[in-house]
Amino acid sequence: MIIKHIKEIQQLSDKLKIEGKKIVCVPTMGFLHEGHLSLIRIAKDLGDTVITTLFVNPMQFGPKEDFTNYPRDLQRDFELSKDAGNDYLFVPEATEMYPDSFNTTINIGGITEKFEGVSRPGHFVGVATVVLKLFNAVKPHIAVFGQKDYQQTLLIQKLVQDLNLDINIHIVPTIREDDGLAMSSRNIYLSYDERQKAGLIYKSLNQAKTAILNGERRRNVINGIMFDMLNNVNEITIDYCAAALAGSLEEPDIFQDNAAIVLLVALKLGTTRLIDNLIVNLNN
Ligand code: AMP
Q1: Is 123 a catalytic residue?
Q2: Which end of the chain is least crowded, N or C, by CB within 10 Å?
Q3: How far is CA 274 from the centre of its chain?
Q4: How many CB atoms lie within 10 A of CB 6?
Q5: Among candidate residues 183, 199, 209, the one with its CA nearest the CA of residue 31
Q6: Does this model's pTM top 0.85?
Q7: CB-based contacts of 69: which residues, under 8 Å, 6+ apart?
Q8: 89 Cβ below 6 A of ligand 1
């Protein structure tokens, strides 16, 4: 069932709670793929009623980004989400989410001030603001997010912690194509030739991971392994290749032997911006 209005979803949520249902929310921008569907399936395991939200949030796109061209297909999303176990699809209009009088933003410091925060000014303010609005609309017990957007997962956890939101955050591993390319709604932008090269992103992450597991601890060497592999490809313009501490995103020159390290890559393949990451936890 598709629900369009904030009041309606709030009333539904209240009713479900009276019935004792555990509500799980899966925020998305739609054009669903297997990655999204894995979130929905896990959401169904975690609770009773799954509410997937579908909103291409204008506030998190920069003026030169792909908001207008972002792929959209509501009917397809409805069918796919339903088959994966979704109960309600919340699809608000931008005019209801952001009426002319709208004048509030959520700005989370620290972890948002590097990587995507630098490359996409205003992006995380848009994400934090819309996620809080979606949480206040859906009022879930649990919300599910993908590790694919690693920095975003840190932001959501900080949002919940700093603003005392009574919501459990569940992070789901990245779903990949056979060659390792992380599934993304944006992959449809890739030309045939670009798509052939896209598997290199995951390869570069794994090459850096192998070096770390073999004892490499120097951040610049680890970054260089990813950079060198990707920089060789004509169609690729690297934004960043970075190893950082997984919890804080701090970048020590040398990692400790018990560090949890996140490897982060952002680049343009042709005109399509792609991001990916891999966690190497030396503590395990
Ligand atoms: P998006 O529609 O791109 O905003 O993504 C909605 C949610 O799906 C976010 O929590 C993403 O991290 C997650 N997601 C996107 N791609 C994948 C993937 N390949 N595997 C797992 N989760 C994903």
Answers
A1: no
A2: C
A3: 12
A4: 18
A5: 183
A6: yes
A7: none
A8: no
Q: How many residues in total does the chain contain? A: 284
Q: Kindly state the tokens that stand for 257.
A: 């032997």
Measure CA of the first residue to CA of the last residue in the chain; give whole Å: 43
DSSP string, 108-162: --GGGGSTHHHHSTTHHHHHHHHHHHHHHHH--SEEEEETTSHHHHHHHHHHHHH
The single-letter DSSP state of residue 213 is H
Q: Which atom of ligand 1 is nearest to the CA of 38?
A: 21
Give bridge partners of residue 277 from the DSSP assignment: 264
Give the separation between CA 140 and CA 26, rounded to whole angstroms: 9
CA separation, residue 115 to residues 2, 53, 72, 256, 274 (Å): 35, 26, 27, 22, 13
Centre of ligand 1 from the C-alpha of residue 29, in Å = 9
The secondary structure element, H or E, covering residue 228 is: helix 219-231
Quick one: how far is CA 205 from the chain centroid?
Answer: 18
Order of strands, edge to edge, in the sheet holding 88-90?
Answer: 2-3, 88-90, 49-54, 23-28, 142-146, 168-172
Q: Which residue lies with its CA nearest to atom 22 of ligand 1?
A: 146
pLDDT of residue 136: 98
Three-class SS state of 103: coil
Q: Measured from the CB, is residue 242 less than 6 Å from ligand 1?
A: no
Q: Does 123 sit in the ligand 1 pocket, CB within 6 Å?
A: no
